[in-house]
Design a protein that fits this description.
single chain, mainly alpha
Length: 102
Amino acid sequence: MTKRNVGNEIIQGLEDALAYLGGDTGRGITHIVNVPAAVDVKAIRERSGLSQDRFAARYGFAVSALRDWEQGRRRPDRTARVLLTVIAKNPQAVEEALSHDQ
């Protein structure tokens, strides 16, 4: 029995979504991705129990960008909103996908 690698499945799904957005509809199964127009970055981070520095380090964000998003000076771009949405729904999957142990 093969162990399912959720992290790789998420990465593949994100790559497929980006390819689709770029006009490539011939890559595997086409999915319609609902990217939220806005995400509450501070609420997502606070639910994690992590400081801004630790949250940024864990998920690969620049601390300055995270602070700007939380304080409303900037809005996360589309790709960051996708990642933040996945973090909000399944942080372990993102941590597994980004793990150095692979």
